[in-house]
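Input:
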Amino acid sequence: MDYLALYVTLKLALVTTVVLMVIAAPIAYALSYYRFAGKSFLEALIYLPMALPPTVIGFYLIIIMGPKGFIGKIWQMLTGGSLLFTFIGITMASIIYSIPFAVQPMKAAFSKIDRRLLESAYVLGLSRKATFFRVIIPNSVSGIAAAAILVFLHSIGAFGVLLMVGGSIPGETKVASIAIYEAVEMMNYQAAGMIALSFIPISYAFLLLINKLDERTRT
Amino acid sequence: MSIAVSLKKKLKYFDIDISFSCAKKNMVVMIGPSGGGKTTIIRMLAGLEKPQEGKVVSGDDVWFDSLRRINVPPQKRRLGYVFQDYNLFPHLNLYENATFAAVNKKEVDELFELFKIAHLKKRKPQMVSGGERQRCAICQALARHPRILLLDEPFSALDAITRRGLREELKNLKGKMSFPIIYVTHDIAEALYLADELLPVVEGKNDNQWLQRMMTREPSSEVALRAAREPRLTLVY
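Output:
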């Protein structure tokens, strides 16, 4: 069994989840509490990766992250290396690919908080930032957990985007779904089956967890 | 410490244009039909809404002055603000709620004793009655050592008996406090029981005849007619 691919998958999903939670929180906050020009356009842009075929996202990421692309150039200047076919490269791709799944549940959780609760915090002397950490976050724990689980599961399943941006370098960019695909290509059904089977309990357990969280918020 | 207020703000159906003051240890009760701008006035005092024109001066501090472009944010006004419900944070227990912005945590214990909720310290707000929640909300506001206490229909969501009890406690408490209190209600009995000074507010303006019209039940104007359709205002119970 290709433990290395499984390890890369879990590492990628974990890093993606942690980074996305930090990035998505302020975005979700701005989308639920502020009104500004072009907000609906920005929101649609953030959700765009959900609506695009993964290969289309992958294609544009290759363009941007390639040696002639905007991000690729900056990366080259900073590190002297290429971003394509590296773990950092697929992590960036995975973050962009999963961003809607982080922002949407968080925004829903933030929007559910009564505005009067925030005003109460302001009157009690809390700044907006302190209110975010002491009132908003603790009152949207289940929404944030749901976002984290969705992102984690979604990154585990990523295939097309990662294959285009990262290729299949063992220990670096070869994730489990790519390993399954390659094993099947080589008619090695046993190897493919082993990795495939290991996904089922992981995904199932996380879905059960989401349901539990959902029940808890409804009561 | 006292507060002097004059405010103007255009609303959708009428304009708020009011001025009043409240000395320390005094309670001004703002009374009038619902939808008459009372809550908006309180929110402007708290800094949660911005008046178009006017001045709010608390003691020596200017909180708002449209001419000098001063608008102190709610965080810096140090006031106590209790509204109908939703004051308390659902993720904290009563004690954590009351100490949330407390100057001195020891005082919270005393306040809890005074308001008879010391045995509920560890309960979450949703696990206690509405009356107990409002007691805690008042403790939370007082623990901050406010320079003024704003109470916006704090007992309206409670049953008649609890409301009456809390009303009495508040009246007793008033003597011990050194700051002005502004109390909003649409209940005339409550207003007469608590007030040092009455401030009838109708459509955003001070209307001193409103109370008289209401009490004599003489629906002489459109506004009074509308107010008369409010849930029966009982003077005796």
